[in-house]
Amino acid sequence: MTSGTIAIRNVSKRFGGHQALAGVSLDVGAGEVVVILGPSGCGKTTLLRVVAGLEVPDRGEIWLSGTNVADAGRNIVPPHERSVGFVFQDLALWPHLTVRGNLEFVLESRRVPRAERAARARDTLALVRIEKLDDRYPHQLSGGEQQRVALARALVARPRVLLLDEPLSSLDPELRATLRAELAQLHREVQVTTLYVTHDSDDAAALDGRVVRMREGTIVDIGQDRTKSRAADFP
Amino acid sequence: MRRPQPARTAVIGMALAIFVVCAVAPVAHLLFASLGDARAVYATVLLDARQRGLLYNTTLLGTASALFATAVGVPLGIVLARVPLRGKALLRLALAAPALLPPYVVGLAWVYLGSSSGVLHALTGHDFLSTWTYSLSGAVLVLAVVFYPLSMLTTEAVMRRIDRRLEEAALIDAPLRSVMRRISLPLAAPGILATALVIFVLAVSEFGVPGLLRVRVYTTEVFTAFAALYDFARATLLSLPLLVLSAAVASAAAVLFGDRLVTSRRRTGLVPLPLVAWRRPARVAILAVIVVALGLPAAILFGEALGARSVAAALTGSGRAMMNSLTLSATGATVVVAVAVWLGYARARAGRRAGQAADIVLVVLFAVPSTIVGVGLIGIWNRPGLAGLAYATDAMFLLAYLARFLPIAVLILAAAMRYVPASHEEAAAVSGAGWLRTMARIVVPQTWLGVATAWVITFVLAFGELGVSILVAPPGESTLPIRIYTIIANTPASNVASLALFQALVILAPLCVLAAVGSRWALR
Q: A184 and chain B: CB distance < 8 Å anywhere?
């Protein structure tokens, strides 16, 4: 069973004179949570973007669910065909669409039948407990509510892989603690393979996943696997 | 608590007084004069079938020009914002050039192309376009060529300003084409729509092209009533519907633009999402538009000018008009910028609501058709006493330039000054500098490119100004646009084309310099 696995093979990425990633390799099992921890500029966001297909690796390969989706200098599978959900650091909610509109854009793009869309959107909003806000626009929401919408949007298409790029960084400490717990609970419910990028070790502790430490474009430490990932799942 | 600053109050107050007298008073005077006889106004606006025909023609000209210009400008703007192309700065300049030419110069090229004695007839032996040359459709085509760069440049600006993360978030789920259609274009839509409205206003305000192509619209009718029939009252009444139409549409555009009127590109540090696959079709489209909108008119005018027995003689015959245009435009641009600097500063430092209200006033005043401004200026200055001293002198040209171009110069300078942080002024104040010294040594030097841009744009607009100048010109005085417009009917086309080419060169030269300086500065 390879659905939802991630295999990063010796990936390098350079921006001008800056080596963002230098030969990074990492395997993530189906349903596993991996927290990538490191200081600003260490390459953790770039790694997430390469997995999503928003950046093309200069060297190395990316495998998702047993399929080679990118290798040196090219995306073999475009981002929208990789079955990933992405929560951006600044959330990137589309300001001209309502909460429901943000979710429905994803469902329409993934060709979910019209009859199913409303129910899927409603269920996902209920999952993150904002079902009553479906007709609001992003600017009418609080920071925590916006964060939940971004999470709902990333999950509504039932992706095999969820990528979170410092999703809690803009929130106040109290709200961060609440949402950390909710994210952990949410992962137990949906069991989606998750790569979570942060520079906050409290996030890492709360999510109960494997912790990977990065520095200057390389992985310096891979923590103990506390989930059920299986080496045989990786290509 | 903010320290009272008498120097600031005095200088800005003085600039505001000049603004009110020169830019607001002519329009206000005309408005009150036209409302003086309510019954006549009612009959003019609603009951007269002739007026309804004028309103229909005017609205059709504005709507069709705006739609056509937007249809050409939006794809080009997307291309400039997102497609990686070599020599983009040069391509942008070539694509924008038609907007910098006086519309009647492009109209002249159109007449030389399509009329029964035109280039097309001479080359093919067939008379394809002559019935279409002097028509509303011809005017729409010419105005679309002149105004598409406005839509193009706005679209480029708004497409560059879209947060790349919003598009990337959509790319996770949808292909690029769908992302552009569903996310990028809706985000850019308010800016694009606002520019379409501005183009509408500029098209209905245009006098030279409909006049040249014999299209009956409000601007030409106002001119005829005043200059041919000497009926000031009729000219005033005819101005009212056009004034209301322009003001309403310009207000809507200003509201749609919102704060973006005085805010330039947001710097997120992220390069906008590139459309690499569009490179080849983009190149073909750009070249096609440059050939049709710039190359063809230039080639037609050049070809006509070659027919002149002596280009030098043609130019010499209009030497006085040329010198007048150069000196008056340069003086006018300097005076306009000298006033606009203070008002731009005041706008940049105004609160949100006051700033938005000011933007609406500025856009509406810029949108007031030139013939209306001309009639308003005459109403104010053509009277005995102190005011009358300026009338029948070259000062009327300067008053015309202040009335027409002060609003746009204020907007340009407000956009530039908004990027000088208030803390810079506070630091100077703490150091003991007075407000005037702070402005001269801290604020204005940081906005020199904005000041230069405002001066060049005002110079270019003043050099091509026709609608007001032709109404307020003192007896015996002329500028190049007036000279060209008045000799079209009774002078060989080769001479007129020579003058139009000269005018185009004078306009494009400083803009090329400004573009070169601007791009070098941006690189630094």
A: no
Q: What is the pLDDT of residues A79-89, one digit of tens each?
A: 989 999 999 88
> B299 and B319: one domain?
no
Would you give the DSSP letter of residue B431?
T
Alpha-carbon distance of A103 to A154, in angstroms, equals 8
Provide the pairing of β-strand A161-165 with A74-75: unpaired
What's the number of domains chain B is made of?
2
Strands of A33-37's sheet in order across = A84-87, A161-165, A193-198, A33-37, A210-215, A218-222
Q: Chain A: give the shortest CA distance to residue B269, in Å.
A: 13
Shared-domain flag, residues B209 and B332: no
What pLDDT score was predicted for residue A231? 36
Contact B175 A88 (CB under 8 A): no
Query: What separation in angstroms does the CA of B392 have from each of B383, B398, B475, B482?
Result: 11, 12, 7, 16
Which tokens go with B343? 């008002």
Q: Which residues in chain B have their CB less than 8 angstroms from residue A153's CB? A: 169
Strands A18-28 and A193-198: unpaired
pLDDT tens digits, B190-244 = 888 888 888 998 899 888 899 889 899 988 888 888 777 777 777 777 777 888 8
- State the Cα–Cα distance between residues A88 and A49, nearest whole angstrom: 10
Q: Give first-to-last CA distance, chain B, whole Å.
A: 38
| Residue ranges of chain B whose pLDDT lies below 50 | 1, 264-269, 524
Which pTM does this prediction carry?
Answer: 0.77
Nearest by CB to B173, from A80, A90, A92: name it: A80
Q: Does B326 share its domain with B288? A: no
Residues B286 and B323 in one domain: no
Chain A residue with minimum CA distance to B169: A92
Q: What angle do CA B24, B27, B29 make, to 5 degrees?
A: 100
Range of the domain at B399: 1-36+308-524
The share of chain B scoring above pLDDT 90, in percent, equals 27
Query: Is the separation of the CB atoms in A104 and B192 below 8 Å?
Result: no
Whether residue B10 is contained in a domain is answered as yes
Cβ B138 vs Cβ B59: under 8 Å: no
- Spatial separation of the C-alpha atoms in residues B381 and B383, rounded to whole Å: 6
